[in-house]
């Protein structure tokens, strides 16, 4: 039985890259829609509880799929994490993200955040994402290599670096 060709099969490499970025932005849009629905009806605290629980589950799935896609070994270290972070949905969806290797650490900076920019444009308060961010980054790193530890450097509402929306330091435990 031969599979029928779809429009997807006809897209060029550039069109496929563009489509992947659209899907990455769509994930953020979906995340924002359900979050704002709970926030509007039940308040920020309840919305944040559900946000943390959703990211606790989603992050592990995303990391596992990317790890398998890249064929990373169980202990692929910071090299494997750098590869994985560079293609995760948030790196593809946000307008500007930086990955900086500094010796035994990898710094992941979201310079311009799609979520915070959207909330600002709507006149909404910033999303207090630090408690979600530590779950997201620590769990993602741990799936890639269970020896990697994530530390928040700066993330709303605990901002220590005004040059970015958030910043995470990832190190390999000895």
CATH architecture: 2-Layer Sandwich
Question: C-alpha Rg, in Å?
Answer: 17 Å
Averaged pLDDT: 95
- Calculate the terminal CA-CA distance, rounded to whole Å: 53 Å
Unreliably modeled segments = none
Number of domains: 1
Give the helices and strands as they follow along the chain.
HHHHHEEHHEE
The biggest sheet, with number of strands, parallel, antiparallel or mixed sense and barrel status, is: 4 strands, antiparallel
Proportion in β-strands? 15-25%
Task: Name some characteristics of this structure.
single chain, 174 residues, alpha+beta, Muramoyl-pentapeptide Carboxypeptidase, domain 2, four-stranded antiparallel β-sheet, globular
Q: How does this structure look, described?
A:
The chain has a single domain (13-172), classed as Muramoyl-pentapeptide Carboxypeptidase, domain 2. Helix content is 57%, strand content 17%. It is built from 7 helices and 4 strands, in the order H-H-H-H-H-E-E-H-H-E-E. It has a 4-stranded antiparallel sheet with strand order 1-2-4-3. A hairpin with a 2-residue loop joins strand 1 (96-102) and strand 2. The termini are far apart.
């Amino acid at each position: 039985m031969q599979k029928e060709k779809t429009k997807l099969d006809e897209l060029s490499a550039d069109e496929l890259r563009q489509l992947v970025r659209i899907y990455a932005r769509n994930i953020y849009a979906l995340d924002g829609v359900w979050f704002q629905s709970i926030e509007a009806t039940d308040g920020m605290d309840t919305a944040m509880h559900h946000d943390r629980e959703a990211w606790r589950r989603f992050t592990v799935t995303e990391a596992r799929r990317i790890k398998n896609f890249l064929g990373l070994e169980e202990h692929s270290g910071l090299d494997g994490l750098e590869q994985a972070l560079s293609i995760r949905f948030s790196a593809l969806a946000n307008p500007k993200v930086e990955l900086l290797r500094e010796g035994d650490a990898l710094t992941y900076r979201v310079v311009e955040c799609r979520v915070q920019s959207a909330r600002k444009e709507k006149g909404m308060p910033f999303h207090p994402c630090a408690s979600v961010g530590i779950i997201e980054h620590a769990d993602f790193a741990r799936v890639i290599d269970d020896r990697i530890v994530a530390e928040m450097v700066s993330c709303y509402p605990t901002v220590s670096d005004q040059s970015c929306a958030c910043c995470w330091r990832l190190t390999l435990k000895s």
